[in-house]
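Encode chain A's predicted structure.
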Amino acid sequence: MVRKLSDLAILAELEPIAESNLNRHLSVTTDWNPHDYVPWDRGRGYAGAGGKAWSEEESQLSAVAQAAMITNLLTEDNLPSYHRQAGAYFSLDDAWGTWVGRWTAEENRHGIVLRDYLLVARGVDPVALERARMEHVTNGFGPTAEEEERHKTDFLLSIAYVTFQELATRVSHRNTGRVCNDPVADRLLQRVAADENLHMIFYRNMCAAAIDLVPDQALEAVASVVENFRMPGQGMPNFRRNGVMMAKHGIYDPRQHLDDVVKPVLRQWRIFERTDFSAEGEQRREQLAAHLEDLQRQVFKFEEQRDRLLAREARKLEAQAV
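Encoded structure for chain A:
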C-alpha cells in the first residue's frame, strides 16, 4: 500500500536527511566576497554624488546582455519573497531552519555582486533599474491563485519547484556571462552559477528522498511543476520582452529548459525507471511522459521560428551593408 503523509509528517521524516545534506553543503561550498568580483577601478560618481548621470552610450553591454543581466538581478532581488515562501513551506526549525537561513544569506550575495557590477561598470540605466526593483519586490513572488487552490500549502510542490528553478537559474547566469563580452562579468556569473548548482543539489537530494518516502505524492508534485513551470522573474517589468530576447539568443530557451534542466533532473530521480508507484501513480507518470513529448514538439517549433527570424535579420543586415 502506497503511503500518504501530511506535510508536517514528511518534514519530520526528512529532517535527518536535511541535516545530512546541510552538512554536506557546508563542507563543499566556497565562501566568497562580492567586492572581490567587482571592477571598482571603472567606477565614478553619479549625479546625486556630484558625478555624471548615466547615458546609454556608456554601457559596454549589448542590448541582449543588458536584458539578461537586469532579468537575473531582479530575480535575485526578490529574495524576501523567496525567504518567506521557504520559511512557510520548509519550516524554520531544526536543520530546515538552518538551511533556509544559510541559503538566504548565500542568495543575497548574488544580488549584491550583480548590482555592484552593473553600477560600477555603468552597464544599465540605474534609475530604471531601481524603479524596476521597487515594483518587482513590492509585488513579490508566490503561488498564483490557481496554484493555491490546487495545492494549498504543499511542501512537496515547493521542493520540486526549487530543484528545477535553481538549475534553470544556473543555466541563465552561466549563459549571461558568455554574452557580456567582459571577462570580469563572466567570472562573476560563473561564481554565482556555481552557488546555484550547489543549491540545486541540496533540493534535488531532498526531493529524491521525498520520492522514496511518498512516491505517488511526490510524483504528483514533480509532474505538476514540470507541466506548469514558470520562472521566478515572471511579473517583473519587461519580463516577457526580455525573456523573448534571452530565448532568441540562446541564454535560456525551450531547448535548454528541456534538455539541460527538466530531463537531467527526472533522470536523476529515475522517474521513468521506478517500480514503486501505485496504479494511480503509473497513470500520472504516463501523463508526464505525454507532456514531455509535447514540450519536445514545442522546442522544434520554437527553433524553426527562431532560425527563420535570425535568417531574415541576417539578410537585412547584409542588404544594409551593401
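The chain has a mean pLDDT of 92.
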